[in-house]
Design goal:
2 domains, disordered N terminus, 10 strands, 358 residues, Nucleotidyltransferase, domain 5, five-stranded mixed beta sheet, 10 helices, globular
C-alpha cells in the first residue's frame, strides 16, 4: 500500500515537474483593423511576427471596413502558415492560440476570431481572448536582448489612430485609465490634417517625414484646454482646416510653398499636448517610469522629445521597437503567454466585439 502511494506521489511530482519546465508556445492572431498578422511567442521570446498590409485602402483615404474583412479572409491562412514556418515549429507544438477579441472593426475581428476558434478545435488546445489595447501595452514585456521591461507600477501613453490614453499599469492585467480623449485621437488628428494637405493615407508617417525639414514654430495653432488628464484634438483639427482654407484663398500655392513648415508646426503642437498631459500625470502620481505604445509611438519627433524630457526630469522611459508599434500579432501572443500562465482561457462561445474597454 505504501509503495503504491509513494509511486503515485512520484508520478505526480514528475508530471508537475514536466509541466513547469515545458516550453509554452503561443500563436497570436491580430485582425482588428486593416493589418492581418500572426506571430509565435515561446516562453516570452518572439520567434516570428508576420504582418500583411492592405494597400487597397490608400485610394479611399481611410480604411473601408468591408474591403478590410475581405482582405483578412484572403490573408489569414498564408500569414499564419508563414508565421509557423518562420518560427521553425510544427503547429502541434503550439500550447494555445491567442486572438484579438476587440476593440476594432467587427467584420475584421470576426475573421481572426473564427479562424482562431477553428484552429484551436482542430489541434485540441486552449483559446485565449485578448484586449487589443492591453496588448499594445504588454508588447514591452516581449523578451529582447539588452532590453529591460518596465517595472510596476508605470504609466503608459497609449496613442494610436483610434485611441489616446494615459494608463496606470499596476500589473500585467490590472490597469487604470487616468485620461482619455473626449473626441478625436492623436492619430486621427495626424491623418486628417495630412488629408487637408493632400498627403496620402495614412498621413501620420508622411507628416513625420516632411516635418524633419520644417520649422516647428513657424505657424501657431489652437491648443485645447481640457480638464484633468483628458485630451481633445477636434478643435485643433478644425483650426488647422480653417487656417489652410483661409490662406489658400489668398495664395493658391500656400500649401506647396509651406508644406515642410506646416507639417512641422502641426506635429509640434500635437506632441506638445501629449507631453504636457504626461508631465501633469507624473507630477500628481509621482510615478516616473513611463512607456509609450500604439502606432503614433513610431513618430520620430515624439520619441526624440520624450527621451529629451525624460533625461531632463530623470524619468525612466520605455520606447518599443518600430516594428512593434503598429498593430501586430506579437503583442497578442505575449499577452496570451501571460494569460496562459494564469490559466485564463476562453471558449468557443466567445464572440468578437467592436467595443472592449480596458
Amino acid at each position: 500500500m505504501y509503495k503504491i502511494l509513494i509511486c503515485h506521489i512520484k508520478a505526480k511530482s514528475l508530471s508537475l515537474h514536466k509541466h513547469i519546465f515545458m516550453s509554452i508556445t503561443i500563436l497570436g492572431i491580430e485582425s482588428s483593423c486593416d493589418d492581418t498578422s500572426a506571430a509565435v511567442i515561446r516562453d516570452g521570446e518572439m520567434l516570428s511576427n508576420i504582418i500583411a498590409n492592405q494597400d487597397v485602402h490608400i485610394k479611399y483615404g481611410g480604411v473601408v471596413p468591408e474591403l478590410a474583412s475581405r482582405a483578412h479572409q484572403q490573408n489569414i491562412i498564408p500569414v499564419v502558415e508563414r508565421a509557423i514556418k518562420e518560427a521553425r515549429i510544427s503547429k502541434n507544438e503550439l500550447s494555445a492560440i491567442a486572438f484579438t477579441r476587440g476593440p476594432g472593426l467587427l467584420g475584421s475581428l470576426l475573421v481572426g476570431s473564427s479562424f482562431a476558434k477553428g484552429l484551436s478545435l482542430s489541434l485540441d488546445i486552449p483559446l485565449i481572448e485578448i484586449n487589443h489595447l492591453q496588448a499594445h501595452i504588454l508588447v514591452h514585456f516581449i523578451k529582447q536582448k539588452d532590453k529591460i521591461p518596465p517595472s510596476f507600477p508605470f504609466l503608459c501613453l497609449l496613442i494610436s489612430g483610434g485611441h489616446t490614453q494615459i494608463i496606470k499599469v499596476k500589473d500585467y492585467f490590472e490597469m487604470e485609465v487616468l485620461g482619455t480623449t473626449i473626441d478625436d485621437a492623436a492619430g486621427e488628428a495626424f491623418d486628417k490634417c495630412a488629408k487637408v494637405l493632400g498627403l496620402p493615407y495614412p498621413g501620420g508617417p508622411h507628416i513625420d517625414k516632411l516635418a524633419k525639414m520644417g520649422n516647428p514654430k513657424k505657424f501657431n495653432f489652437t491648443k485645447p484646454s481640457v480638464a484633468d488628464y483628458n485630451f481633445s484634438f477636434s478643435g485643433l483639427k478644425t483650426n488647422f482646416l480653417y487656417f489652410i482654407n483661409d490662406n489658400v484663398k489668398l495664395n493658391s500655392n500656400f500649401i506647396e510653398e509651406n508644406i515642410y513648415d506646416l507639417c512641422a508646426s502641426i506635429q509640434h503642437i500635437i506632441i506638445e499636448i501629449l507631453i504636457d498631459k504626461l508631465k501633469k500625470v507624473i507630477k500628481n502620481t509621482g510615478i516616473k517610469e513611463i512607456a509609450i505604445a500604439g502606432g503614433v509611438s513610431a513618430n520620430s519627433m515624439l520619441k526624440e522629445t520624450l527621451i529629451s524630457v525624460s533625461e531632463k526630469n530623470k524619468w525612466i522611459c520605455h520606447i518599443p521597437e518600430f516594428k512593434l508599434t503598429t498593430d501586430n500579432a506579437a503583442m497578442i501572443a505575449i499577452t496570451g503567454y501571460y494569460k496562459f500562465l494564469k490559466n485564463d482561457f476562453t471558449n468557443q462561445k466567445t464572440s468578437a466585439t467592436a467595443r472592449y474597454n480596458l
